[in-house]
Design goal:
The chain is built from 2 helices and 8 strands; from the N terminus they run E-E-H-E-H-E-E-E-E-E. With 141 residues, it is α+β, with helices and mostly antiparallel strands. The chain has a single domain, classed as Archease, Possible Chaperone, Chain: A, domain 1, CATH 3.55.10. Strand 4 and strand 5 form a beta hairpin.
Length: 141
């Protein structure tokens, strides 16, 4: 699941790409996690669940990223990866079940790059390109 960083003047503009909507959202979350720390040095010892709802997939992506960032802050962990486990639409909107795997921050072992404060609605876009799904947004660093 690839991800990219796009040009932005002050914050970080991320793009997640996947063969399915779940893969694209997961890749976007991985872009955020990789911007914060060297994910190769994080051992996925613990798993944290996320349950989010929103009116549409782009808004759901922002909600999910912010839930992951909240859990990181409250639990004092770094995440190596995040995955969308379920993505469903019903009469009220969209539901996402996800997981993020990581471990408590160890300043002696982990290399931290930057702090991502929040996912924003700025630059938020979700689309299908050829055979891939793409999700983009700016995160506040």
């Amino acid at each position: 699941m690839p991800y990219e960083y796009l040009d932005h003047t002050a914050d970080l503009y991320i793009r997640g790409i996947g063969q399915t909507p779940r893969e694209a959202l997961s890749a976007g979350a991985d872009a955020v996690l990789a911007a914060m720390a060297d994910v190769d040095k994080i051992v996925p010892r613990q798993e944290f669940a996320q349950h989010c709802t929103a009116a549409d997939i782009p808004s759901l992506f922002v909600e999910w990223l912010n839930e992951i960032l909240y859990q990181r802050e409250v639990e004092g962990v770094l995440f190596a990866s995040a995955r969308v486990i379920a993505l469903e639409e019903d009469e009220k909107g969209w539901k996402l079940e996800g997981t993020a795997r990581g471990e408590p921050l160890d300043a002696d072992r982990h290399e931290v790059f930057t702090e991502v404060k929040a996912a924003t609605y700025y630059g938020l876009e979700y689309r299908r390109e050829a055979q891939q799904y793409v999700i983009e947004c700016v995160v506040d660093v």
